[in-house]
Amino acid sequence: MNIFESIKKEFTIPNAYSNWKDYRKALTDLILQDEEICDPSAAKKRSIAVLGAGPCNDLDLKRLTTHFGSIDLIDVDGESVMDGLINQGQEHCPNIHIKEGSLTGVSQELTERFFNRLYMYLMEKGRALTKADFIERSLMEFRSIEEALFRNEADLSNILPVKSYDMVVAAGLHSQLWSILSYSWHILSGNVSEQIFGGDVIDPEPLHDHIREVDDRLIPLINEAILKSSKHRVLFSSEYDPNSPSEGAWQCIKDIRQRFTGGEIELRESTLEWPFYPEQRRKYTMLIQDIKMC
Q1: Is 108 left (phi over 0), alpha (psi -120 to 50) or beta?
Q2: What is the pTM of this model?
Q3: What are the pLDDT digits (tens) for 154-199?
Q4: Ranges of each domain in the chain
Q5: Which of 33, 52, 92, 253 has the lowest CB atom count within 10 Å?
Q6: pLDDT at 36 over 90
């Protein structure tokens, strides 16, 4: 296993399936609240896409199969999704399909390239490295993968064709667009701080600021494609803390509210508590934005 794969393993939240039991039920309830009043015989005709599905610890897949005849689980990491299917005993369900793809245009391979190139640069520079060198090179490597970013709706049409689903769900998606890349960068930064700068922390804000600028452009584009891909409903679940906004999630929340104000969509909002990582006392209030297409 290479270094990047080891970092991905570290990124996995232990005991997530058991710890998220109540959240999983509540989120699945919200998804199904309108579906359960529909004619059960029509279930096999209804379709749903789950974006950024990952190991599906936040959704009850068996319950979804009783209300949707076709379930597409879309994620950049197909292996993670399969692990989730196996965990819930749904790996042989004919209704469920894994679609591997990126909603940003940046693949896992490009994210790994970002890490590997930055790692090799650090090895070459050694103790001659300065903080300014590290930040400058980090931004350069990030800009190199930006060339793959989706720039218009047509770029997203292969993964999200227009009106291809009855419902689309994006739970915790927008805050995770750069999560592995950011986490791997912080691993490198921490090692450099300890080994070269005597524990003096490298300021991450230049990279964070650049990612924020990218998200400001990219997230409205992704949301537009998501909304157009659904015939009836879209449900977003985003980390909600106005005093300390989560990168990506906050842009999504603002974008959807602006669309509601502009009359593009019908919107219901509510909140759920997500016990993200109890062992580290990390939890989130999730804003549910339940959208009906006008």
Answers
A1: alpha
A2: 0.94
A3: 999 999 999 999 999 999 999 999 999 999 999 999 999 999 999 9
A4: 3-293
A5: 92
A6: no
